[in-house]
Amino acid sequence: MKKRVYLDYSATTPMKKEVLDEMLPFFNVQFGNPSSIHCFGRENKSAVDKARSTIAKTLNAGVDEIFFTGGGSEADNWGIKGVANALKDKGKHVITTKVEHHAVLHTCQYLEKDGFDVTYLDVDQYGMIKIDELKAAIRPDTILITIMFANNEIGTIQPIKEIGKIAKDYKITFHTDAVQAYGNVKIDVKDLGIDLMSLSAHKIYGPKGIGLLYIKKGTKIHPIIHGGAQERRRRAGTENVPAIVGFGKAAELAYENIDEHVNQLVTLRNRLINGLQEKIPYIHLNGHPTKRLPGNCNISIEFIEGEALLLMLDMVGIAGSSGSACTSGSLDPSHVLMAIGLTHEVAHGSLRLTIGDYTTEEDVDYVIEQLPPIVERLRQMSPLYEKVKGGR
Ligand SMILES: *Cc1c(COP(=O)(O)O)cnc(C)c1O
Predict the structure, then answer these.
(1) 196 and 66 in one domain?
(2) Confidence band, pLDDT 50/70/90 cuts, at residue 332
(3) Which domain holds residue 179?
(4) What digits encode the pLDDT tens for the residues 272-287?
(5) What is the DSSP string of 255-275?
(6) Is 44's C-beta closer than 6 angstroms to any atom of ligand 1?
(7) Are residues 104 and 200 in the same domain?
(8) pLDDT category, 77, cuts 50, 70, 90?
(9) Closest ligand 1 atom to Cα of 76
(10) What separation in Å is there between the alpha carbon of 370 and the centre of ligand 1?
(11) How many domains does the chain have?
(12) Are residues 210 and 81 in the same domain?
């Protein structure tokens, strides 16, 4: 078979075998509805409770603070719209950033149409918010701050503890999208001062279509899915038991050897970044040099077009992403790369390679071998590159 190298772990991850094995009985053998009072139901209620408790422990959260959702996007929608609806009589101002995932950004834009005022904070060249600008943006009618934990495109990790402290000082609810951070960073919600947090299972080797919203006890929030009394009357709908069980197992595995996992990713990522930087002129790393996700390598390659690069990489079996998976298909450059100050041209020549648990040294070396000649071939078609090269 042709060699295939998957370097798009930020888009999604394969499920671990242990996760799949744990889930399988819940599709047919142990199929009861957790709300039923008979033993079929009760067994499944305890399976759901067990997963909830496993996940709560990884976050230093209470079991009654974990609410399962249909994924990270739903959790983001709920956290933001739910707080906006609960607190709109108190104020209608929300603070977020220009580099959020679309699940946050588009939800904020929806709120704007509904009469809310949203401040989109700028970031510096590394994608980091400035704490002074956050403080300056706070108004008497600010009800919510929603700032992502770690960026899905460039990997930058925000100063969450500082943001949490400011939110607390000003008595503003603080939501964070931690979908990318979970499993890669140790998260203690109490220590970090987080009120609401979105997570998703399929980014940590769990199943797709399951996520959660952490809601700190006492936080004012309305439901967005109305119906039955599931999730303590806050998120209706029969529980996706197999997925919840899988999420619990994936969380357990992720935090069992997190240090080892992070070290492995950082080693391979640095090998990749250094290897590419050595072999390809006119490239640079996007995102923060140190405060970044362990598996993230996002580089801008001048004088090439990212989409063409992705297609040529695909032909040699390498799966990466240009900018964000969510914007691929559109010709607009990534909002994140624009926010860190790249020009349209440079943003279009950007490549995101994200490493995960199944990435090997051999995979990385294969990319370091394949990418430079592809870049060189694409650059030959660039009149600008010919000029720069000629001038050297
Ligand atoms: C993937 C992702 C989401 C969306 O999660 P889904 O479970 O796919 O809906 C939200 N935020 C970030 C930062 C992500 O990376």
Answers:
(1) yes
(2) confident
(3) 17-256
(4) 999 999 999 999 999 9
(5) HHTHHHHHHHHHHHHHHHHHH
(6) no
(7) yes
(8) very high
(9) 10
(10) 30
(11) 2
(12) yes
Among residues 39, 108, 297, 326, which one is catalytic? Answer: 326
pLDDT at site 327: 46
List the structure tokens of 134: 């956050």
**In this structure, which amino acid lies at residue 67?**
F
72 lines ligand 1 (CB under 6 A): yes
Choose the final residue of a domain: 256, 280, 303.
Answer: 256
- pLDDT for 324 equals 44
| Number of the ligand 1 atom closest to the C-alpha atom of 211 | 7
Query: For residue 297, what are the CA distances in angstroms to 11, 289, 301, 354?
Result: 13, 10, 12, 6
Atom of ligand 1 minimally distant from the CA of 209 = 7
Query: pLDDT tens, 371-380?
Result: 999 999 999 9
Ligand 1: does its nearest atom lie under 6 Å from the Cβ of 175? no
The pairing of beta strand 196-200 with beta strand 211-215: antiparallel
Q: Which residue has the tokens 């989109």?
A: 120
Active site residue 326: yes
Q: Is the CB of 71 under 6 A from ligand 1?
A: yes
Distance 10 CA to ligand 1 centre (A): 9
Establish whether residue 100 lines the binding site of ligand 1, counting it when its CB lies within 6 angstroms of any ligand atom: no
pTM score, whole prediction: 0.96
Single out the residue in 256, 273, 303 at which a domain terminates: 256
CB 292 within 8 A of CB 384: no
